[in-house]
Design a protein that fits this description.
The chain has 134 residues and is mainly alpha-helical. It has one domain. The protein is 81% helix and 0% strand. The protein starts with a helix and ends with a helix.
Length: 134
């Protein structure tokens, strides 16, 4: 089974490295050099999304190539799925900041994010035309 490692190196590795460096580097600067006022707080959440999306890109790429689906995933689907990890992580940090995060809420939130992605993939599958892709 071929995973298309060359495509990963061309498409996703540079993006993953840039997002990871910008996200974690920016988070270090925001945490170390600013006060938690409104602007830096929103910047913290934005950089958190970048910092978690970057490392999630290779993982989502591997999982989508390891477990292929019908229709095959597009590059934007892999990016969207990696972005869900970043949004989930920033949402969890935001809820923890308000001290309202509980294990039950964490589980419900994870199920909601998985359900949204499942419904999006179901919608894409219903609109897939195999003759058009060939």
């Amino acid at each position: 089974m071929k995973f298309g490692f060359g495509k990963f190196l061309r498409t996703f590795l540079p993006l993953s490295v840039v997002l990871t460096l910008l996200g974690w580097g920016g988070l270090l600067i925001v945490i170390g050099a600013t006060l938690p006022t409104l602007g830096p707080r929103w910047l913290f959440f934005f950089l958190g999304v970048l910092a978690l999306t970057g490392p999630a890109l290779p993982i989502t790429y591997y999982l989508n190539k390891r477990f292929p689906s019908n229709p095959p995933v597009d590059d934007m689907v892999i990016l969207r799925q990696a972005l869900w990890f970043g949004v989930f992580g920033s949402t969890v940090a935001w809820l923890q900041l308000g001290r309202i995060l509980t294990p039950g809420l964490l589980l419900i939130l994870a199920v909601v994010f998985v359900l949204i992605e499942f419904l999006l993939r179901l919608f894409e599958r219903s609109r897939w035309n195999p003759k058009k892709d060939s």
